């Protein structure tokens, strides 16, 4: 994998593999629609028939298979094509096998029933013709001149970035010599599902030695420190103070993190108030249900139903916060154990994913800053790889990334030399701080000014590309060498891969290596379901496994840059911890945002969720996955079960209450669970085999039937890529040593083809899970259901920062997308209410997941409850009867308990009162708008099949002044319901006060109760009202017209129906007043 060698594009299904070179490069021109002439089973040439045509085994898909493999498949195999599974038909010269159709037009009596003589002659002739050096083997040679596929490296040796393959280390290789002819196409081997795996070399590797070698490597530091020192006999080999070094050895054995518990005086009081609030709620509902309001029974019944739902919603939200914890990491211990100075780093390799779709909504400059912060991260450069997924196949994104790679050669050494933070240049130079603080190098000021000039020039080049991309040419975009851009049609284009940075050509201005930077755009064709972001992430999993195969993955959105250069080390403190790493599926970091207005009008920071809810979940089974800023264990994404201890196997509270605790037998002292138990298929997982079996070495491979599934099963689960399947066995990451590096790029094109996932477990049991626009919730839920835990990491300096939509309409559309995803999960088979009870999901964790999917339904009782005060004011009725002092006490205690719970949460979490209040306000704003629309859209999508479009949230920078975007009005139908609620309550308040003035002082008492609830609604919707008015206090006419129209119609209907006045009362009123009343 050589940097800057050219773009690779192709389609596995169409058998295309094209290399597009940069301008000025030597070498042959790229070719299109080049058909392979290499047998996909044995790697040998396909050969020609007696008539001189290319041998075609399968007439349905023309899958390249040579004559000997074709004969073997028909005689001893499954007699079908490995790709399309169509039964092979008999060709002339082939012996007849059982099951062949009767062929009247084939006259081949000499060879029809002769399996040796005639066939041997044909095979011999094939060998003579197929191995000639100058024979044209292309399937297209009958129609066009012979041409060869140019090699990516232009005939040069492949970069040493990926381990070289040698003949004695091949397990998946061509049967010929280890030399790869640069003029010949790269062979990609497809393993025959019916054959024994050992015959291909996969089983010939001594797994026990490899696993034991890995164990020895992990314990290397411990052994060195143990053997290095004697029993207190002073200094050894000039290492200095023996006591200090022994202290270092002791530190290396310490845990890499610790749990910092919440002070008991705060937590116990918090739990006590929760219990008291629950008791008060019971008495409150006992009073409300037993004291109906007879003259306003519909209003009373509606209010009671709404209040019961609010109580259930509170329970779902409250009890997952029963065990909140904080965590602390020890980066110095991580360095002592895995990254000592003067020794090769033993930190695990990490692949970082950046996802982007539309460069018009996600500006390339923001994506470039994210990539630059990744390339400058404080981690060994040979263990970091950055993959940028362009799911919109935009040439603008490609060119911007090319510019970013060039600027990184200057930016990365500057960051590491002066240890600056953050390492995204846009946000570093925008800081209003003393940048000379803690900088002692005299050259810093001069170099900083020079770097700022370089960055300004870089911005000019990026902005010029953006301006150029505003108008697409009629003939489509063209690359610098005149080649049409392969992604001109974003819905129909081949897969594209470009290696910008790497070991070969990836050096900075100081001559040091840079992390790998790879551009990826997966193939898209009409008629295929591409699954939006989840499908793009799964494509990145596969292509990264083929090219670099980092043991861990970290995904960020294109607008979330590394604010802390040590973020990867923070995550490794948990992932590489001997106690936690084997059962941790991911480490979630909180989201923090730049560019939000001072008062956070629309609760964009979401502080309550990130600093209260996720801390509470961290004490149970871990936080939910929030879609970005998350470091994954690759093995967890592959659908493996975790390695659990006996303590982890204790039954959950539901199982204990029903069946009692488990009695420990002779196996009670085992540190890991029994492999037969772990190998059982459950509803929540269908693992290939267990990670514990890999630990146990060769014993896990002796029982082939139970622990080593057939190649056919592996392909059914992971897809037909032997290189990718081999990479899944590498628990500690890295490319399998037997891999042929020349075949990697072609295999990478294969695994991102649009039909690769067909009839596999991708999106069902492995990778990002499909079925919802909020794929993050589903993916995390499936992992937790298998028994994995997750970790919430909150370093003192935020690990990542991003941008959020501060405009009201954009914010509501973002919330609508999240709520719609929750409704989709609620109506799917993966709903936490009924899914995964045979797994190891803890009860409170399940309650938290249920809360994440049912919260949009709260919008229905919420909007009804917000309309009730206006109705009460307009009709003179009320939802509560005249209450006694005893009943009033429960109302007062309920309000006190609500405020006490909130205050105590703020106390142990450190969240400010303003953030809490903004969260409460936006809960009402979102509930009366976006959540309500999500419920109906979700029902239409699931029940009627009416799909809604996925809209990317705009992440445009604020170029028109401070928070100018905050005051921009964008029309959306989401604004109508809350505006109507506001107008109705304002009209109701005017009507109620007018009625009280006309009726005398005795009506003011009941009025205050009604006004209190109406004011409660208006105060919660106040940020929404400010958003409507904007900076100039002008509301668009369409909003005013719709709101007044709906409010007027509702009020007129209410007056006409008059449901609270009985016919008898109406008659009495008419009879009392008469016609002249």
Automatic annotation (TrEMBL):
It holds the Pfam family Cellulose_synt. Residues 39-85 form the RING-type domain. It is a multi-pass membrane protein. The keyword Transmembrane applies. GO terms for cellular component: plasma membrane. The chain crosses the membrane at residues 853-874, 886-909, 921-940, 974-997, 1003-1025, 1037-1057. It catalyses: [(1->4)-beta-D-glucosyl](n) + UDP-alpha-D-glucose = [(1->4)-beta-D-glucosyl](n+1) + UDP + H(+). Binds 2 Zn(2+) ions per subunit. UDP-alpha-D-glucose binds at residues 355, 361-362, 391, 532. Residues 99-111 have a biased composition (Acidic residues). Residues 74-119, 133-186 are annotated as: Disordered. It is found in: Cell membrane. PANTHER family: X-BOX TRANSCRIPTION FACTOR-RELATED. Belongs to the glycosyltransferase 2 family. Plant cellulose synthase subfamily. This is Cellulose synthase. It comes from Phoenix dactylifera (Date palm).
